[in-house]
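Quarterly update from the structural biology core.
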Amino acid sequence: MIKKLRFTLELYLNYLKRHWILLVAGFLIGSLFFVFRNRLIAFYQNQFKSNRVVGIEGLYTSKNLPSEILAKSSYGLFVNQENDKPLISPLVKSYDIQNNNLDYVIDLNNEILWHNGKKFTAYDISYNISGVKIEPISDTRVKISLNKTFVPILSALTKPLFLNKNLVGLGEYSIKQITYSESYFKQITITPTDKNNPNSITYKFYPGTDDVINAYKLGEIDEMETNYLPPEMTTWANTKTTQKIQSDKKYAAVFINTSKLESKSLRQALAYATPKTTDKNERCLGPIPPNSWAYNPSVKEYLYNPTRAKELISGNKIEKLNLSITDRKLLPIAEKIRDSWEQNLGIKTTITVENRIDNQNYDTVLAYSGIPSDPDQYSFWHSTQTETNITHLNNSRIDKLLEDGRTQTDIAERRKTYLDFQQFLSEESPAIFLFYPTSYTFSRIK
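Predicted structure, tokenized:
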């Protein structure tokens, strides 16, 4: 037994003496591959795949899927142009407005198929819009009836249609693979319906900014978009950086609870005492963006003016305020606002970071607000909209303008209405409009 063990040991030792170089090299190569495996896999994928991998920050379900994926995967009955004027989509041949703008009869394209091969018909159309009735007349004709005139209806019909919860759509790309992390999307792959196009796209979802940036650095994704510009990323080799001011998507503002801060002069004082960007492209003056046909560039700008702020607050002095935020990325801006209010107005200002704002009891809140495709602002500022009018603005003149803007079919009249609305809203100061955020897109150059 001892002789066998000695023989075996000598055999292994002789083998090691002859091949130690190969063994050491194998160990080193294996260690290096383990350390750099993500970069090596990414290099291989970038060289040989036709699939582009895009990283997206945020938690998403089928109810709030990013507009980029929705737009690629399906169509609504209409599509928005850059000037906010809807046009018919490939699903529609023509439409006719009847009964004094209460009925819309739409003729459908009878050659459209869902991605599962089923023929698209009027019976598949499903929109949940208050005060709107959808009635199929035949497979290729549908009647959409309103209980009262609502001019933005065509913009409401731009929402992409899907056949079921599996996101079977009608667009240029088909959603093929979905993986989940708990109840949220983890990864979605879409493939082109055109067989001559081999380029599919995979979207990977990450909960935070740091997560998506690290994923890009590790080579897990080829492209990402973020509102934060990491300094080191601008000098990375083989990376293209593109920036865009998101004036068509959202804006940042300090929203004021007018039921608590009832004095218009006090709200205007806060506006004048709030620091703002000096970049005219970034600066936001109101809820309707510069690219809209209804934009009013002549509203009061409330440029930073501590002297005017002190004049307005005399007789409206308050001792303390709370400034709430839900997005920690806005904390540096909130701190600048707090410091200015305290220094210039003598108002003790506390900042609270909250998961959810109590719309009834807050003082002021720094937050982003989305920009709808139509200039209709009824749900945000009309006094009856208690759930969505978070500032609790109650102004009869503004209410009337918002009501008129929904019913005027003459574009010139409607434009004048919204120009006036922006003027009066600016004067009332229920919100301090600050800026449009800048997004940064990082793309790996192959």
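The first strand starts at residue 52 and ends at 57.
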